[in-house]
Amino acid sequence: MSQSYKALCNDFYVNMKLSLKLDLPKTRETVLDLYERVRKSFPAMGNFRRYRDEFALESPQSDMPHRWTALRGNYLRCGTVNPPSMREAYALHHTLLEVAPSYLSISPLDVDHIELLYGFDLVAGGNHDSIVLDALLQGSPLSALVDVPGATPIDFQPMVGLTLTRRGDTEVFFEVKTRPGQGHVVRDVEAGDPISVYLTLRKFGPILELEELPRLFTSLCEKGEELVQQRVIPGLLVPIRESIASGNA
Q1: What's the average model confidence in pLDDT over 83-88?
Q2: Where are the domains of the chain?
Q3: Does a cis peptide bond (omega within 30 degrees of 0) precede residue 180?
Q4: Where are the alpha helices (DSSP H) in the chain?
Q5: Cα 124 → chain centroid
Q6: What is the pLDDT of residues 130-148, one digit of tens each?
Q7: What is the rounded distance in angstroms from the CA atom of residue 74 to the CA atom of residue 91?
């Protein structure tokens, strides 16, 4: 499945975030024990880095797939870049959800939400905002807003958020991120910079037991793949790819 996604973009990645209500422990023993456990499952993840407010473990950038995880404040994050299959895309995420709670003393009461992001990077030069406008607004009533003689787009990054349940405990966001031509000065983007398309799903707690976390994540994955196939690819990725290919910048 992810091979078909990779065919539509330059880079494809799947990220997860477990957000908690209290800050995570940052003691030397706790962090190193968790990351040693992760490395047993993913031996290539041997690069341990400490930043100002974050402890990160990752595989070499040259590895495919590239995997990373990070502890910061009240959340645990991880991601897989350019996985060969969707099973590989989710492997690190499932492992962390299964083992991290015991190492980090996470309680069901502590869980705020779990988040799943599918990211697609499309390398494009020129004016990113013009590319996205041409792809998504042409022929719509909103196109009249930008049909101003002599005007040049400087910021067009559409985002739509929806709740998927009556309880409001499951949210989905569709977002397009352009860079870096926002602001009052119009600049063309270098050819190596991407337009990013994001699909983000977020499931809020509470949960009754920690064993629910892998199951909740699996349900988000199932819904996420459905939305990618039925909404993101035809509604965002294909039109933007076509706009890039036609040179609309």
Answers
A1: 94
A2: 2-245
A3: yes
A4: 2-6, 28-41, 86-104, 128-136, 143-146, 212-227, 238-245
A5: 19
A6: 999 999 998 888 888 888 8
A7: 22
In eight-state DSSP terms, residue 97 is H
Cβ neighbour number for residue 22 with a 10 Å cutoff: 13
CA distance 42 to 25: 23
In this prediction, what percent of the chain has a pLDDT beyond 90?
A: 74
- Counting every residue written for the chain, the total comes to 249
Instruction: Give the separation between CA 133 and CA 122, rounded to whole angstroms.
Output: 15
- Closest C-alpha to 202, from 122, 111, 120: 111
Tokens at 218, concatenated: 């699996």
Residue at 65: amino acid letter: P
Q: Are 71 and 31 in contact (CB under 8 A)?
A: yes
In angstroms, the CA 211 to CA 112 distance is 15
Higher pLDDT among residues 249 and 105, named by residue: 105
Measured CA to CA, the distance from residue 61 to residue 13 in angstroms comes to 13
Question: Which residue's structure tokens are 């998504």?
Answer: 136
Residue 57 tokens, joined: 């473990």
Quickly list DSSP for 176-188.
Answer: EE--S--SSS--P
Condensed to tens digits (0 to 9), the pLDDT of residues 6-56 reads 889 999 999 999 999 999 988 889 999 999 999 999 999 999 999 888 999
Mapped onto helix, strand or coil, the DSSP state of residue 3 is helix
For 86-105, how does the pLDDT look when each residue is reduced to its tens digit (9 = 90+)?
999 999 999 999 999 999 99
